[in-house]
Amino acid sequence: MPVNITFPGARAPTADRPLLGLTVLLVEDSRFACEAMRLLCLRSGARIRRADSLHNARRHLRGYRPDAVIVDLGLPDGSGIELILELAQATPRIDMLLATSGDPDGEAPARAAGADGFLAKPIGRLGEFQQALLAHVPPDRRPGGLGCLPVGEEVHPDPVAFRDDLALAAQLMRHGRSDERVMAYLAQFLAGVAKAAGDTKLCAAAEALSVARQGGAAGPAFDRLAALVEGRLAAPAAL
């Protein structure tokens, strides 16, 4: 049976670390997005674990009960909406259930499935992240002095995490050109990763693949996207 690992008597949150004592399970397939969230949690005082798929999230949740679960809507083995529905209907319910996506159209279905809130990607501003979570924290666990939250402060994930995401995409692309499900996943995955990394050309190519898939002629768009991914991996890594 899952147990809550937020211990009584833990240090109280402060204005500098307003999420101190909070435990977070992030269900996220992107290493780059996960690294950003890790830095946000570290800076805020929260503890974080990551699951990169629905399967691994369910495995985590069989072992412990976090205070908050943040679920990406696009996952390699299905939609995050599935997990949100399960957790929203579970007894006892997770205290804080949030959805996240680079597609703003995901907010309405996530809330309809039972999500308490929605985090639009890219998530990089510390104050915005803290406010989004504190909005769902019980009043007796909120710190004083919230007016001092660092609204404009940003975190900057390690570029190596971006390359890790590209390497995963490249591996899938080598075997998934004829698999419609893999192609759909790659289009949304790379669009989100590229948007978070500020790579506008890669983001546009991923979005073009999504459009081409709807028209039934995705081959050329897929090849252009694959070439961009391989080109970025072939370039020297930034030191």
Automatic annotation (TrEMBL):
Segment forming the signal sequence: none
Database matches in Gene3D superfamilies: 3.40.50.2300
Domain Response regulatory: 23-136
InterPro entries, sorted: Bact_response_regulator, CheY-like_superfamily, Sig_transdc_resp-reg_receiver
Entry keyword set: Phosphoprotein
Pfam families named among the record's database cross-references: Response_reg
Residues with 4-aspartylphosphate modification: D72
Gene Ontology biological-process annotations: phosphorelay signal transduction system
Listed name of the protein: KDP operon transcriptional regulatory protein KdpE
Organism from which the protein derives: Limimaricola soesokkakensis
Name of the gene this protein is made from: kdpE
